Fold this sequence. Notes:
The protein is an alpha/beta fold. Helix content is about 20%, strand content about 15%. An eleven-stranded mixed beta sheet has the order 2-4-5-6-7-8-9-12-13-14-15, covered by helices on one side. Strands 17-16-20-18-19 form a five-stranded mixed beta sheet, covered by helices on one side.
Amino acid sequence: MSRTFVEALREKYCEDDGENQENFVVDIVFSNRPTPTSGSSSDDVELGYLKNMVLCKSSINKAGIPSNGLRSLCPNVVDLDLSFNSINDWDEVLSIFHHLPALKFVNLSGNPLGGTQVPTPCAGQTFGINDLVLNSTQVTWDQAITLGCHLPKLQELHLCQNGFDDISTSTDRLCESLPALKCLRLNGNNISRWEDVIKLQYLPQLHTLILSDNPLLNISPVTMVTADSHTPSQENEPTSCKESTKPPALEKGASQTEENGLEEIQGESEPDKELPNDVSDSTSTQEECSNQEDGSVQSGIGATAIDSDEITVEKEDGDDDVTMAFQALSVLCVSNTKLSSWNDIEALRTFPKLRSLKIRDIPLGKDLPEDDRRRLFIASLPNVDVLNGSELTPTETDKSERHYVRYFSDKPDPPKRYRELVQKHGELKSLSVVDIGRNFTEFACLSFVYGGRCIHQEKVCVTEPVGILKKISSKLVRKSPMFLKLYYLPKSREDDGSELEELILETLPMSRYDMMDGDEIHIDVSQKPQRRGAALLKQGPVTPR
């Protein structure tokens, strides 16, 4: 059964009118009194304490905002989770934004929002949201761009699993509508061409870009261009962030007092966020790269945005008119893509600020052991400090570079990086391969010698402890194992000077003696029982009695 946003809100968070109150539990939480918003007193706010609101999977299809708005109900909501509802109209979404002016984080994942256009914003009608999740909403790039004009402070945008085959907008529109964007998550789409990704290169604050689970085929080196070559053009461009003279639908029922209060709250500093207990599972698609180093962004309700200090690229004298592509990009994730060439890895060296990279599960190097593949990636990327979540050390980097030189030393067409590392480390020979398991056999046929003659032959498993030989010998000579001493003679060795070696440690596996077919176990019967401590004494070659 479909419900409005306000109906679902009241059902979950407001008290009942005396019905079904026989059995219930009340949780009392003491917290600081929230600052009352303009135009309302603290006594008039029913849910003034509420900052984190979770209404996922609540069958919401409309806003249903009353004529007096939400100022007397819940004006202090900062984090809002509306994932997996049935909202399909952007007018309803913008109406909720308008009446919750303190919003900073909104999750709209799973709502069918791809079928309607986003209204063009009017003068002064923007919102202070800085983290927006639109996963699995089937939104278009045009909708995302127009929505960005409503959210000038947007720092993190989640567009995962929306079926994007490309980035069907221009670089100019992206820069105009998303000037403050620091983190863009495009996990699980169908983007395969780097020519589309390059449209993101002049987003001035883009710090983190997540492209995992896309069939991306290649990466091209970034370039340095003059400022004139990417100046936004006003000709032949669709309307993006130009102000509209038509009043938006969200203004219905809103008073002038609410508009003034909106502007005041948007100017306030961002309140502290607290993580609610019933966070929706809709944020799981962002977990893969959420635990990055300093500067990365945490996903989900209560997320903290990246440091807002402007990131710039140092330029040499005379380069004032030169702009670097991806000038602020520090964190990149391209795991589970189709990258298959070392040229793609070389291209990552040209990103001026790249410091953290995730690049798991790609075709390149898939036949190599995981440790070898990691060493080759480390040596290829001297600009990267964190690879796949692990910080690199100088020792690991040095070993990786030497491994890189050895690996490509006999390859017909090594990457350019190979010649650089040869100049640094010289020509290195391949390491010798030592097979410690050569000639090892799990079973060996041993001869048991007593009184100068062979009395028995038996095939034993050499992974078993030496104590097994004493049990066998005890049965052969009908003596207690306490009165037996055993000596090992390696008859299978090519060296004729082999000597008897006493088998002291009964817990030691027979394989430690390299026992093989034809070797002999000599049995000696002592007149006194053997002390257990004698096994700890170091014995030299002896002659059996």
